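Hi there. Long-time user, first ticket. I'm pasting a complex I've been working with (about 1422 residues overall). I'd like to know whether the download I got is complete or cut off, because the file seemed smaller than I expected. Thanks.
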Amino acid sequence: MPKNPDIKKVLVIGSGPIVIGQAAEFDYAGTQACRSLKEEGIEVVLLNSNPATIMTDKDIADRVYIEPLTVEVVEQLILKEQPDSVLPTLGGQAGLNLAMELEERGFLKEHNVRLIGTTSQTIKKAEDRLEFKSTMEKIGEPIAPSMVVENVEDGLAFSNRIGYPVVLRPAYTLGGSGGGIAHNPEELVEILQNGLRLSRVGQVLVERCIAGWKEIEYEVMRDSAGNCITVCNMENIDPVGVHTGDSIVVAPSQTLGDKEYQMLRTSALNIISELNITGGCNVQYALHPTSFEYCVIEVNPRVSRSSALASKATGYPIAKVAAKIALGYTLDEIKNAITGKTYASFEPMLDYCVVKIPRLPFDKFISAKRTLTTQMKATGEVMSICDNFEGALMKAIRSLEQHVDSLLSYDFSQLDEDALLKQLNKVDDRRIWVIAEAIRRGISYERIHEATMIDIWFIDKLAILVEMEQALKTRELTAELLREAKRIEFPDNVIARLTGRSQDEIKKMRYENGIVAAYKMVDTCAAEFEASTPYYYSVFGSENEAVRTSGRKKVLVLGSGPIRIGQGIEFDFCSVHCTWAFSKEGYETIIINNNPETVSTDFDIADKLYFEPLTPEDVENIVNLEKPDGAVVQFGGQTAIKLTESLMKMGVPILGTSAENVDAAEDRELFDEILEKCGIPRPAGHTVFTAEEAKKAANELGYPVLVRPSYVLGGQGMQIAINDEDVDEFIGIINRIAQEHPILVDKYLMGKEIEVDAVCDGTDILIPGIMEHIERAGIHSGDSISVYPARSISAKVKETIEDYTKKLAQSLHVIGLINIQFIACGEEVYVIEVNPRSSRTVPYISKVTGVPIVPLATKVILGAKIRELGYTPGLQPEADYFAIKMPVFSFEKIRGADISLGPEMKSTGECLGIAKTFNEALYKAFLGAGVNLPRHKNMIMTVRDEDKEEAAQIAKRFEALGYNIFATKGTAKALMEADVQVRMTRKIEQESPNILDLILGHKIDLVIDTPSQGVERSHDGFIIRRNAIETGVNVITAIDTAKALVSSLENTDSRKLTLIDIAKI
Amino acid sequence: MKAFLILEDGTVFTGQSIGSAREVISEVVFNTSMTGYLEVLTDPSYAGQAVVMTYPLIGNYGICTEDMESERPWPDAYIVRELSRIPSNFRSEETIQNFLLQYDIPGIAGIDTRALTKILREKGTMNGMLTTDENYRMEEVLPRIAAYRTGNVVEKVTCREKYVLDGNGPKVALLDLGAKRNIARSLHKRGCRVTVYPAFTKAEQILADAPDGIMLSNGPGDPKACGDIIQEIKKLYRTDIPIFAICLGHQLMALANGADTYKMKYGHRGGNHPVKDLKTGRVYISSQNHGYVVDTKNLDASVAVPAFTNVNDGTNEGLSYTGKNIFTVQFHPEACPGPQDSDYLFDRFIKMMEVDR
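Hi, the file is complete. Here it is re-exported in full:
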């Protein structure tokens, strides 16, 4: 069936801010879909609140709205833009839920807008627990005995009947939010209450626990003619019980025979057909490990995280094909872009093995429980490809950038056998390392399997890796042994460590024996057809297929690896734009990256894609083959920056700012010299290596001080210390991570935090705009609300900032991007940080100022001058609207994480509020972040002493908005003194009803809790904040944020928001 | 022990010997299935061929004898990237290593199967020799390799005597040209009484049993080498008994009716081939294993019309015989290994027989 001619203008709804369970994969899917639609001449209107995405670029869609994802906004947008269709299946659960609400309200029908891709009946059948159950029963597909409950009593009664443990799954939530396994009535009540609250429809599914069964997924496509195919299947190494997003996953399945494989494949096709899905769909199964019994766990009638993984694992562009199907095409009409010869109506065949490992945030949330459950916790993931499983696993491990490079990286050797067996029963992110230790101790496969339920096939593969460790340690390193170690992807540094040789010796021995990496192509068809897609992975011991190209100048773009807190999708935005810009300048582009969720790892972004770990050795192998003319590191975040030195050693010129100058910005002494030369002040500080030195420095400077390691992103390990004990603790934490670089101790300055991104061509600079943080210094810039244009600093301060930026960029010989953070105390401006590279604010500031910073920086890197590019150097004129970037957190997903903000970054994503007035922009930004007030008009305040005066002012304003204010004793007293009508509430340790009961009573809109600084944070505060977050109450931990929130609620009519087309800026 | 795979064009792959260490010359073909190695090994259509698995990890779930598609493995040799050190599956009874040894099948592991597959794709299917003799002399072995012909392999794989799978439904005569077990099983499962006949059974003998329908199975080798069988099929064609044929059976029926067949460059072997039902426009993913294909160029529409084509390369995948209750397919609706999407064809056959009855 050809394209439906009635579809001319399509609204695509994106997925909003990056949160755990909904990450970059939807930018990838959305971007691919928009391009696919535009290819067909469709006018694309895009709505997404996330400014860091590539999909919200004017190159990707015709009209771009970075507005909150609420029903009201979509309705207004539809009235304004008059699209004929809405494509809701590419924006994750957020987009799907919105579309469903619009449909249910009858709005779409009323305005003659159709849902394309998949109908609302289909979505309902798949997503509504009851309908799903009856649909599955109708076609005879087994599901675990279950019941949808809407209250705790029914849940208890049903669980008593089917027996514990039971699994709880709230309807319509992301990444399994609020779900879990309950082993007894107490746990059931706790999880169920939470789940009922989080579900959009107040429903939770209680079902038989199938934990320990094999978890298998199928990615299925279907067109309107009813043709279906499976793109691939995947097997979770972690059995049912761990969310698939937190599991180590292998594609294709490894331990299923053809009978099991086809049984589940046929089931998946039956399901997609019965649900009448047109587009992509993901079906998750639990397969009994010792029988053919299986259960359908879940169906996602849309593209998902798994479909992004499946696309990258197979080369089959699911989102692109789904978009074409939505337009009416059938699978046999859509060309397979990889082969260019075959069609989308085939099933990819892999001749390699793919491993995905989740990137978990426990390095950021030290207090959080590491336990993995059905509630997803990973912020991102890495994928690797190899022709054997062991190698794929090893490559994925070193792609994580979590200080791990082998199965030796977490040390459990100090545990005795009992403790080790106990540890084996714990399901956490270090489980494969625990298994490796168990294997080293000679614990049998059967025992390991009993404890973990992980299939013996995988345990044996881990054993092969452990045996290689032993062999390298004990046997003579022959060429044959080395060849075998490389075949299963032991990196040179690990071989060196185990054999007691140097890494260079190992490398030399490899070269002498011809043991070098070869590259194979991902071609969707196991070499059956010729493919021209330049998508490669490395293997050892095979013939090389990647041909060194020549002719054009060639540039290597280093990607940014897995999405983690502090290094998110922004850097993928920068990498992709840089690649496109180089391409436009006539360069051949090569991307190296290992993140399957991103646009940069789509095979048609660069001329060549190497899906590889970003370690010096892996990069060098590619460099040896490709011999690039240069590499750009300034767009790929810290991952890429860290490779600078190695690249230089390989003889690859670094394009743009040179490595020495990158160093100069990070090296305290060099940097101080530059500042002094330029006459730029910075907060006094010292470089230290030990806790003693740190304390000495702190006392000299006077507390409070900022303590942080150099060479980090996202403020990892950065803390404000108010006394010697704090310093001791922080240095301890910093040193837990291997530390080659010194520690910085700086005087902590209270003031306005200001940030700029600038392009420098060596002489001139271009500053698109100055951003000002709402929260005063001390809260990480990534966690602060950022306002463009800066509104509370004087013209003189702005001039100073422009001047300092220019001086710094010139002194550091920046060619390309620079990001500088300042503190303004009155009219004084101090520099606190300089990063001679792209930053996380680059996509935001580019979009709201209309200055395409990345392409400009790329041109400058290639020798162009700002003046030649049509720009007047210096600070660009300010816009006549406000654009506010709001951080978004995923605290509810991470049990035990402290949500109070500080110098260490904790947010996972961001959204934008843009409007003519400051208050409206602020309102939209809060709204986009999910703060939708007022509701019950009840709030709680409990603030530290320093904040009491300001708190009283804020309380008055909330009171004027009609809020009832509850407060604990100290705060209440201060508020009363300021004539605020306040209701005193008891503290946690006091008898009920106390503050906790108030929070759990579901009638509270907001908690303002500002914790005291330093280690001595109150335990009460922690419990209040956690409970509030887990009850879905908005929590604010900085007084400035509270002030901003109340401003946003004043004088804003939520029904009359103005929508701004970013594409026209 | 080292093993060498020497191709007709002189390319040599060195790996480790698996299974039997005996020397063998055969025609090398590749299969892209990611699961179902046992079904591939026991598919009689591979008789006279050496099979390369493009999926690199083989043997993961061991050997489950109930999944065998015939009583033994047939390929002359088995070529893989890696054999799993241990099998893991609740039904596994044996390792693939032992299985190959038990049936004296020689093989090679540890070679770059993708590189080998690319050679076969680019140059076409060719002969090869598998040997563990390090001192082979190229100039001596190459002519021997080139001289290899698959020969009349149907004779080798067909059953020796007729046998019956009892049932109350339609009586099906299944002509075993090298049939995979799941053909009979698919019919039997639907209640058919299935009588399986050796390939060289005379038409008269089959017809004497008064079947309600005739099924021509898959099988190995060049269809044109089956002249005698084609003569018998001509007789079966002339009756009004419904006939359903798969793979070699499909080719023989076409040859019996004046169509031609030709050898493809490297064939279709795997579980991902899209076939289009030309009547409905629907596309099904099919299991395939064939090196020859029916040439529809000179097909007389009054005899038969194409019913299915391959979406990838447009080759014929099925025929519908004009004015006859006969339909034949090139792909494998019996799956095993591979997708079960076209399983409905057995229902169509049953319906045909019931109407006819």
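A couple of notes from our side: The longest strand of chain A covers residues 815-825. Chain A touches chain B through 55 residues (CB under 8 Å).
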